[in-house]
Write a structure and sequence with these properties.
By secondary structure, this protein is an alpha/beta fold. The chain has 17 helices and 15 strands. α5 crosses α12 and α11 crosses α15.
Length: about 525
C-alpha cells in the first residue's frame, strides 16, 4: 500500500527479506522473490534501502544470519517496512513470527507480504495477535534459556555465530585477521578519527576494488556496525559480556577512543517533532468500484492544514477511469473500528472465536511437543556418537586422533545449535492457551479507546481481513466464520458531526493503549 511521502526521510524506506529452505526446493527462487518485491516497492512508492537474504535455510528456525542482522538493524530506525514475498518467508512458526513482529513493531517497523493478504487460517491470525501481546514474557524467558544453552560454548571462548565483522574470518572457533580486509580497519579508523566522512571513505574503498564480506559495495550504512566496534580492540561482546581471547585486536585502544569521541560528538538525537502518519488499513483496503488497492494520500488546504485520505490507486497512479472519490483517513479508520467492536466483539461471537482460537493453539502445541521429542532424539544421537568417538580416541594413532578430535568439536557445535532449538521449543510447549484466557484477552478489546491509534492498529491487524469501500458503504470481511459486514454510510447522518459527538463524550483514556503495547 502506497504511503504519502513525508518530511521524515525514512518514511518510505523499506528493506527486502528473501529466503529459501534448500538447494533442491522448487518454489519461488531468491531472484524471483526479489523481482516481485522490487516491483511491489516501485508500484507503491517505496524506496528499497537494503536486502537481507538467507539461502538454503529453513524458516522454522530463527537463527538465520541475515534474518538476525535485519532484526538488529531495525533498532537503528532507518526503514519502516520489511517486504517479504510471502509471510512464510519471514517465519513458518507462529510463535517466532509473533515474537519478531512485536520486536520490529517496537522499532516502528512492520512486515508486508507482497503476494498475499493473510496468513493461513483466520483463527491462526487471531492467535498470533494474542501471542504478540504475550511477547514480552516470551522474550524474557527465551533469552534466559538460550543464554543457558550457549554458556558452555562462550566459556570456551568460541565464536557463537552471526555476521563476521569486516576484517575477520573464523578459524578454530576464533576471530582472526582476514588477510585481504584486515588492513582496511586501521585505515578506516585513522581516516575517520582525522575528520574524513564515511561517505568519502566508502567511495575510496569501492574505487580501489574492495568489497564487504558479502561481496557488496561499501555504503555509509556499511560502517554502522564497524565504527565503533570493540571487537577491533580484542573485546568481542556477546550477550552483554566480553568473551576473552575470541577476537584478535586490529587497532590500538587510543585510536578506538578517538573514533568513539568523534562518533559521540556527531551523534544527533532524532527530531522529536518529526511526525509520521500511519495508514492503518494499508494492504487491507480496496476500491469497491474497480477492485484496485487503496493508497495513502494527502493534501494541504488554503489555510496550510494537512489532510489525509485513502484514494483508489488505479485512479491515482494508473489513471484508470474509476470514479471512486477519496475518503477521509481518520473517519474511515475510526468507523471501521467502531463497526468491528459492535459486530465481531459481541458476546456470542467472542465465545465462538475463543473456542476456535483455543483449538488452533492446542493443535500447534501438539506439533511443538512432537518437535521437542525429535530434537531430543537428535541430541541423544550426537551424545552417543561423541561417547563412541571418545572410546576410539583412547587407542587411535596420532593422525587418527586429530581427526577424531575435529569431529568431536563439530558435534559439540551441532549440539549447541540443538540446545538453542530445544530451549525455544520447550518454552513454546509451556504456552498452553485456554479458552478462558482467550476470552479474557478478547474482552479487553471491547473496552479499548477508539481514538487511541495503537488500539485501532491492533484491532485492525487482528480481526480485519479486507475492506472494500464505496461512496455510500463499506464492506468489511473479518477473520471469523461468515465474517462479512456491509455498512451503509448514508444511514448514519453527518459523519463529521458523529465523530465530533463521540469525541466530546469520550474521556480519551480507555484501555486501548494497554492493548496495543
Amino acid at each position: 500500500m502506497a504511503r504519502q511521502k513525508k518530511d521524515d526521510p525514512i518514511e518510505n524506506n523499506v528493506v527486502i527479506y528473501a529466503r529459501y529452505s534448500s538447494h533442491s526446493q522448487t518454489e519461488q527462487s531468491i531472484e524471483g522473490q526479489l523481482h516481485d518485491c522490487y516491483a511491489y516497492a516501485e508500484r507503491n512508492g517505496y524506496q528499497v534501502v537494503g536486502e537481507y537474504i538467507d539461502r538454503a535455510l529453513t524458516g522454522t528456525k530463527d537463527d538465520r544470519p541475515d534474518f538476525q542482522r535485519m532484526i538488529r538493524d531495525a533498532e537503528k530506525r532507518q526503514f519502516r517496512f520489511v517486504l517479504v514475498w510471502k509471510l512464510d518467508r519471514f517465519a513458518r512458526n507462529r510463535y517466532d513470527s509473533a515474537f519478531y513482529k512485536n520486536h520490529l513493531r517496537k522499532n516502528g517497523v512492520k512486515v508486508l507480504s507482497v503476494m498475499e493478504n493473510i496468513q493461513d487460517t483466520p483463527e491462526g491470525i487471531i492467535l498470533e495477535g494474542m501471542l504478540e501481546s504475550l511477547a514480552e514474557y516470551y522474550s524474557a524467558n527465551l533469552s534466559e534459556n538460550i543464554r543457558r544453552g550457549l554458556k558452555a560454548s562462550v566459556a570456551k571462548g568460541w565464536y557463537c555465530g552471526g555476521s563476521v565483522p569486516l576484517g575477520y574470518k573464523i578459524q578454530d572457533h576464533k576471530m582472526v585477521p582476514d588477510e585481504k580486509t584486515a588492513p582496511l580497519i586501521p585505515e578506516l579508523y585513522r581516516r575517520y578519527a582525522d575528520g574524513e566522512s564515511l561517505a568519502s571513505i566508502a567511495e575510496d574503498f569501492n574505487a580501489r576494488g574492495y568489497r564487504t564480506n558479502r561481496g557488496r559495495a561499501f555504503k555509509t550504512s556499511t560502517f554502522a556496525r564497524i565504527v565503533p566496534n570493540s571487537a577491533y580492540i580484542g573485546e568481542y561482546v556477546y550477550a552483554g559480556e566480553v568473551v576473552p581471547g575470541l577476537a584478535t585486536p586490529l587497532i590500538e585502544r587510543a585510536l578506538y577512543d578517538r573514533v568513539l569521541a568523534r562518533r559521540d560528538q556527531n551523534r544527533r538525537a532524532p527530531a522529536a517533532s518529526t511526525a509520521t502518519v500511519d495508514f492503518l488499513l494499508s494492504r487491507k483496503l480496496f476500491c469497491g468500484v474497480c477492485g484496485s488497492p487503496a493508497c495513502g494520500d494527502a493534501g494541504t488546504s488554503k489555510s496550510g492544514e494537512r489532510h489525509y485520505y485513502y484514494s483508489c490507486s488505479g485512479r491515482k497512479h494508473h489513471r484508470t477511469a474509476c470514479a471512486k472519490k477519496a475518503e477521509k483517513k481518520d473517519f474511515l479508520e475510526w468507523y471501521i473500528c467502531e463497526q468491528t467492536v459492535e459486530y465481531v466483539l459481541s458476546p456470542e461471537r467472542i465465545d465462538y472465536i475463543a473456542e476456535q482460537v483455543a483449538q488452533a493453539a492446542g493443535a500447534e502445541n501438539a506439533e511443538t511437543l512432537s518437535a521437542v521429542k525429535d530434537a531430543e532424539r537428535r541430541a541423544q544421537r550426537l551424545d552417543d556418537e561423541v561417547n563412541s568417538l571418545m572410546d576410539k580416541l583412547i587407542y587411535a594413532p596420532k593422525e587418527a586422533a586429530r581427526k577424531i578430535c575435529e569431529r568431536m568439536q563439530l558435534l559439540e557445535l551441532q549440539k549447541t545449535d540443538i540446545q538453542k532449538e530445544l530451549a525455544r521449543l520447550r518454552l513454546r510447549s509451556k504456552c498452553q492457551i485456554t479458552k478462558k484466557e482467550v476470552l479474557a484477552w478478547l474482552k479487553r478489546f471491547t473496552k479499548g479507546d477508539l481514538f487511541d491509534m495503537d488500539f485501532r492498529s491492533r484491532l485492525i491487524d487482528t480481526f480485519i481481513n479486507c475492506v472494500y469501500f464505496y461512496d455510500d458503504k463499506v464492506v468489511i470481511f473479518y477473520n471469523i466464520k461468515e465474517g462479512r459486514l456491509t455498512c451503509k454510510i448514508d444511514q448514519i447522518g453527518d459523519l463529521d458531526e458523529k465523530i465530533e459527538a463521540v469525541q466530546r463524550c469520550s474521556t480519551l483514556d480507555g484501555n486501548g493503549g494497554d492493548e496495543g503495547s
